[in-house]
Amino acid sequence: MLKNKIYNYLSIEILKNFITILLTFTAIAWTVRAVNFLDLLIEDGYSANIYFKYSLLNFFAVATKFVPLSFLLSLIISITKFERQQELLILWTVGLNKIKITNIFFLIGISLVLFQIILNLFINPWTLNESRSLLRDTKGKEINTIIKINEFSDTFKGITFYVDKKDSNGELLNVFINDTIGGLTTLTGNIKNTQDTTIFAKKGVVTGSKIILFNGTVQTINKKKEIKNIFFEKTELSTINFNNRTIIQPKIQETSTYELLNCVKDNFSTDCRFKNNKAVVIENLSRRIGMPLYIPLLSLIASFLLIHKKEKKFNFLKKYYIFSTAFFILVCAEIFLKFSGFSLRNFIIYFFFPIFMSVILYLVLIKKMISKKII
Fold it and tell me: Which of 336, 357, 321 is nearest to 283 (CA)?
């Protein structure tokens, strides 16, 4: 009964450290990413509400990347803390089983494998796809943030804005708009033949997703290179249907696992959207399923800290050596991930290497603990 309480205490301490480290890393990385997303607000004209929703939907994808490293650090920190406070010495004195503790570390690692795989397979693709849908389905843009004074702005695809000045009332002076893809052809009523449209206006006012222009000219050039001018006193432009340069099609990492597996199953047939990106699809699946398999391996590497001899010189360096070794494996796993989609052999090696090494290290741990009579 007492031993079970001790095991529970060790598990809770490790999980507390893991959650703290994971949230810390995630908060820092997510904040940096959210700053990068400011272009959606400043350059692309999306509202602050859309910006915050988009940033929040990327939170889990950021957190998932730090699960292995956070678990490794939580184990190293927890074991070092127990050792420094003489808690491990007390546990060995009362006859606690070190292999049992190693098994606890390993089981926590297995739990985190399942946790990360669920995030990778279901939650992350869904949240990332929702964030992309948020941009795709948003019609109204904040035009005031897009139009900059005395600068050419090409946020909208094929359409360029230029404004000379803005007065104290917020009115735009000397407005220039050029359209090369036919987004403004409804102003001329000559949709089929118009190739290029240019608008000059002395004054303009932005109201929501509309621009009201006063005293200007609409100049069009058709496919025959004929120029036509239309003069107006007042006209309105709606930017709702303008397409900005933000990528709105889901990327591979934003695509559901089911769709990616179907692409692999059908050997990337013509129905697969990513038939020209076979290696990237397989790499992405390896990241979702294979990368978490390295977590139990980290738990076994950290368990070597339990093998401790007081009289051994430089024993204090052991934790740095073990952390460096485990961190090196994580770096290698990330590097080799890029090659997993190149061939079936690479794919199989990437998946089976952590399993094979886990078995080897577990046997080595048992042998060492038996030889030192510290089980």
Answer: 336
Q: Of 203, 238, 273, which closes a domain?
A: 238
* Residue 194 near residue 185 (C-beta atoms within 8 A): yes
As a whole number of angstroms, the distance between CA 105 and CA 14 comes to: 9
Q: Could you tell me if residue 78 is inside a domain?
A: yes
Neighbours of 312 (CB within 10 A): 10
Please give the model's pTM, rounded to 2 decimal places: 0.80
What confidence tens digit (pLDDT) does each residue in 56-100 have?
Answer: 999 999 999 999 999 999 999 988 887 776 666 666 666 667 788
Final residue in a domain of this structure, among 217, 238, 259: 238
Query: For residue range 145-164, what is the model confidence (pLDDT) as tens digits?
Result: 677 788 887 777 778 888 88
**Minimal CA–CA distance to 280: which of 338, 333, 332?**
338
Q: In whole angstroms, give the CA distance from residue 177 to residue 161.
A: 5
Residue of 162, 139, 157 whose CA lies nearest to 209? 139
Mention every residue, 6+ apart, whose C-beta is less than 8 A from residue 145: 41, 42, 43, 45
Q: Domain range spanning residue 132?
A: 2-138+248-371
Q: Distances in Å between the alpha carbon of 226 and those of 154, 199, 217? A: 25, 16, 16
Element containing residue 301 per DSSP (H, E): helix 294-302
CA–CA separation, 347 and 374 (whole Å): 39
User: Does residue 243 fall inside a structural domain?
Assistant: no
Residues whose CB falls within 8 Å of the CB of residue 35, separated by 6 or more in sequence, listed in order: none
212: amino acid identity, one letter = I
